[in-house]
Specification:
Structural class: alpha+beta
Largest sheet: 2 strands, antiparallel
Number of domains: 2
CATH topology of the largest domain: Butyryl-CoA Dehydrogenase, subunit A, domain 3
Oligomer: single chain
Shape: elongated
Strand order of the largest sheet: 1-2
Number of strands: 6
CATH architecture of the largest domain: Up-down Bundle
Mean pLDDT: 81
Number of helices: 4
Radius of gyration: 25 Å
Distance between the termini: 33 Å
CATH superfamily of the largest domain: Butyryl-CoA Dehydrogenase, subunit A, domain 3
Low-confidence stretches: none
CATH class of the largest domain: Mainly Alpha
Strand content: 5-15%
Order of helices and strands: EEEEEEHHHH
Length: 231
């Protein structure tokens, strides 16, 4: 899937979606004019395959354009079934962005569980009851609670917010389906609001995910920096 500007007859019709072939079906090498490469693993997300791709004078057939709401004739005439066709282009990305929010919830939650279990098992320093008693659990220290408990609360807050986002996305998809059948309705208002909410929450949840990841790692002391810790 490639998102690129469509310019026809000297007019820019904005970003449109294309499905294109990038490799030769026999050799599996990139087609002429297509340059691809790997950018290496991401910290904390090593199983994600990240890469780059560039094009130089690459020609693709006209049917590569996803044309459910837009059409391009043989003579280069561009038509759209709705004036909101451009908005639909980024509408398909919203579900993926909501999955990124869920991943933030998942990873913060998993790390909170690891740090909590560690805090309820790890003992250090003399107990308040005296040296004749086992050393204190680190969770008994207010500073440790200050690190762990907010992360647990944040995990649940993301989940509750995500439930509302998913409900709003479902409403958008329902209204879009009605529009496709009857050409009636206004799913665009929801789409604009949804785009702003999801984009903002994606940035917030990933930023705070990085913050809590570091806090919880430090809360587990030297053990938190071991790969086996899962933090």
């Amino acid at each position: 899937m490639l998102y690129a500007r469509l310019i026809s007859k000297g007019k820019d019709h904005g970003v449109q979606a294309f499905v294109i072939q990038i490799r030769d079906s026999q050799t599996h090498l990139p087609l002429p004019g297509i340059n691809i490469g790997d950018v290496g693993p991401k910290l904390g997300f090593r199983n994600s395959d990240q890469g780059f791709m560039s094009f130089n004078n690459v020609r693709v057939p006209k049917f590569a354009l996803l044309d459910k709401f837009v059409k391009l004739s043989d003579d280069g005439t561009f038509t759209a079934s709705t004036p909101h066709a451009r908005k639909l282009t980024f509408g398909g990305m919203l579900n993926l962005r909501s999955l990124i929010i869920f991943m933030s919830h998942y990873y913060i939650g998993a790390q909170s569980v690891i740090a909590s279990r560690y805090s309820f098992k790890r003992r250090q320093f003399t107990s308040r009851d005296g040296s004749d008693f086992p050393e204190a659990l680190v969770i008994q220290y207010q500073m440790q609670q200050y690190k762990v408990v907010p992360a647990i609360s944040y995990t649940w807050s993301i989940l509750l917010a995500l439930n509302q986002i998913n409900a709003l996305y479902g409403q958008y998809m329902d209204e879009l389906a009605v529009f496709e059948k009857t050409q009636k309705g206004d799913p665009w208002t929801i789409l604009v609001d949804l785009h702003g909410i999801i984009s903002g929450f994606k940035a917030l949840s990933t930023w705070d995910g990085e913050k809590y990841s570091e806090i919880l790692k430090q809360a587990c002391g030297g053990h938190g920096y071991m790969q086996i810790a899962g933090l």
